[in-house]
Amino acid sequence: MTEDQKILDDISQGEYKWGFVSDIESETAPKGLNEEIIRFISMKKQEPEWLLEWRLKAFRHWLTMTEPTWPNVHYPAIDYQDIIYYSAPKKKPSLNSLDELDPEIKKTFDKLGISLEEQKRLAGVAVDAVIDSVSVKTTFRETLSELGIIFSSFSDAVREHPDLVKQYLGSVVPPTDNFFAALNSAVFSDGSFCYIPKGVRCPVELSTYFRINSAGTGQFERTLIIADEGAYASYLEGCTAPMRDTNQLHAAVVEIYTHRDAQVKYSTVQNWYPGDKNGKGGIYNFVTKRGLCAGENSKISWTQVETGSAITWKYPSVILKGDHSIGEFYSVAVTNNMQQADTGTKMIHLGSNTRSTIISKGISGGKSNNSYRGLVKVNRKAENVRNFSQCDSLLLGDRCGAHTFPYLEVHNKSAVVEHEATTSKVGEDQIFYCNQRGISTEDAIGLIVNGYCKEVFNQLPMEFAVEAQKLLAVSLEGSVG
Amino acid sequence: MKTPILEIRNLQTGVEGKQILNGLSLSVNAGEVHAIMGPNGSGKSTLASVLAGKAEYEVTGGDVKFFGESLLEMSPEDRARKGLFLAFQYPVEIPGVSNANFLKTAVNEIRKSKGLQPMDSKEFLLFMKEKMKIVEMDKNMTQRSVNEGFSGGEKKRNEVFQMAMLEPQLGILDETDSGLDIDALRIVANGVNALRGPERSFLVITHYQRLLDYIVPDYVHVLYKGRIVRSGGKELALELEEKGYDWIRNETENVKV
């Protein structure tokens, strides 16, 4: 027991290493939310009239909605009038060369360990970086545009490809979908847009880094990815935020639309500030992510590694509309200290011969609470649906909680739906075995937990998998000595 | 004159209030192989666990020196880094962690503690390939998760393989022969023999004499009720085999009366 306690304490005392504040001059809207603020955002972004109307419609609907209380998380009521809804770095660089990037922003990236040059040169990753609300820099745009791939900030897409945006925006997550999606639709400030044309296989990993920098701001980015017939793209999203005493709201929306034979793989490594060990501060990560396999034989795959945020509330989902389409969800969610996570997925089978796989690994330490919530729904007309779900929970110590809420709604008898769940603890025997081979307890836990998550990490692109492993080690790291 | 690498003096330990070792003393010099034999419950595995630093065992008296330093004060990982290796009786499984990755971490931790540069992947693979021969290890076993789904024999062979990789000064084999068929026993024993050398000592803990046909010890000690009651050369094991542990029981109890 003493060993358990020690491990527990080590983990509970692990501190957030990305908690630096960048001193970037930003242009900020006054606190609060009303139609004026929405008009201000829309004006700042020089948006067309239809988009302003779209926002206002979402806002009016949002006013009629109430915040959901069903997730297994607890937090004081959010004052939506006390949030800044727009904050943009003042000196938005023109995008000719990396040298023109604000040195402070560059420093931020350096601290994040994602030097743009490095990535550009070595990894061949196209990065669209979003600090607070405005997209700062998009690399590789030209290379991609030769293939007809559009990868840009959302604002640029609104200007340059209004028809595409108009056609697909809200087609997967309607503005009225839920409380936070409606809020996002009203106030989203930027995000990423991606369109892969027919038959094109995107040759690089598309990548976005989100970072909340200003105090008291919410981040409401919007991502829209469209894969046309037979197209393929792999998309990476990473997130960090500085340490603040107050809670910050992050309510993003990600929509993925795949046409016939298209595939999108979306990977997230989320490391928002989780608050201190007493639960003070941290990000409220209330995100709506959904993909629509609209065309036959298309595939959407979500992989997420969630180590941060005070509260995580997200269910990356797939609507399997096209026959023979495939949905996948691979998740590692780590909670420590006072963190809370209620995360999982929804697989909605509308088409016949559709298949889905869910692999969820929840790891809880400290006094945290980690819930898996997943829905597998099979429509009456969907024949021969297959689903396999596996939800494993790993407990570090005896003060944390793991919960599983699987929902199955099967309306067609030909469906085969499997659900497996396990709960285990990191064994003292395993740790001692590692110790006896010269490996410290801290490293042993890292090794064991990484092994536990291997199925999910295997789904991540190489460089991201390495990052995820390091992140996991840091999240579990204590202040020994 | 040789200085012992391991010196156990009057060691007394218990678990959950129950006394298991009652004043055990033993000296092991460099290059020696000592066999510890004894009936079930005599404290053989407790001795192995205490030396390796397992937390449940409380040391209530005595002292253990390892290369002149107090072993009992060291953390389990420091004992390992200083060259103490335990081949477990029941090796644990670590799902998702490949044997190769596990060993690379261990090898480099030990190297780090000695102020050596970590081995890079290529160097490590060559090193591993060489050591695999010692226990006739199949290549795919290094890619499998540590002990996961291994047969009893494979687990024990893996323990000896790990020992070969970590090149300890003192190898403790805790009933490594238990559950092995004759072929696996031979492979494991050959592996241990290949690792014998003037600088490496072994503590071979076993219930049966059989293993000692393959790993021929320099000394044999009989443990009974937490204490060494008889020591001798390799012929003592044969004598035990012939007369059974009752012989020790009777003798020890009679002496007491």
Q: Can you give keywords for this protein?
A:
heterodimer, A: 481 residues, alpha/beta, 13 helices, 25% helix, B: 257 residues, Rossmann fold, 12 strands
Explained architecture:
In chain A, β3 (126-131) and β4 (134-138) form a beta hairpin. In chain A, 58% of the residues are buried. Chain A is built from 13 helices and 23 strands. Chain A has helices at 2-12, 35-44, 49-63, 103-112, 116-123, 141-146, 154-160, 162-168, 179-187, 428-436, 441-452, 454-457, 462-475; strands at 26-28, 87-89, 126-131, 134-138, 150-153, 190-196, 206-211, 221-227, 232-240, 247-250, 253-258, 263-271, 282-293, 299-306, 311-314, 317-320, 326-335, 340-349, 355-364, 369-378, 386-395, 401-410, 416-425. Chain A is of the alpha/beta class and 481 residues long. Mean pLDDT of chain A is 80; it is low at 10-14, 91-97, 114-126 and 132-137. Chain B has helices at residues 44-52, 76-81, 99-113, 121-132, 140-143, 152-166, 182-195, 210-214, 235-243, 245-256, and strands at 4-15, 18-29, 33-37, 58-66, 69-70, 84-87, 94-98, 145-146, 170-174, 201-206, 219-224, 227-232. In chain B, the strands form three sheets. In chain B, strands 6-9-10-3-11-12 form a six-stranded mixed β-sheet, sandwiched between helices. A four-stranded antiparallel β-sheet of chain B has the order 2-1-4-5, covered by helices on one side. Chain B starts with a strand and ends with a helix. The radius of gyration of chain B is 18 Å and the shape is globular. Chain B has 257 residues and is an alpha/beta fold. Chain B has one domain: P-loop containing nucleotide triphosphate hydrolases (Rossmann fold), CATH 3.40.50. Chain B contains ten helices and twelve strands. The A-B interface holds A 2-3, 427-430, 432-441, 443, 447-448, 450-455 and B 52-55, 75-77, 79-81, 85-86, 88, 91-92, 94-97, 101-103, 105-106, 109-110, 113, 145, 162, 166.
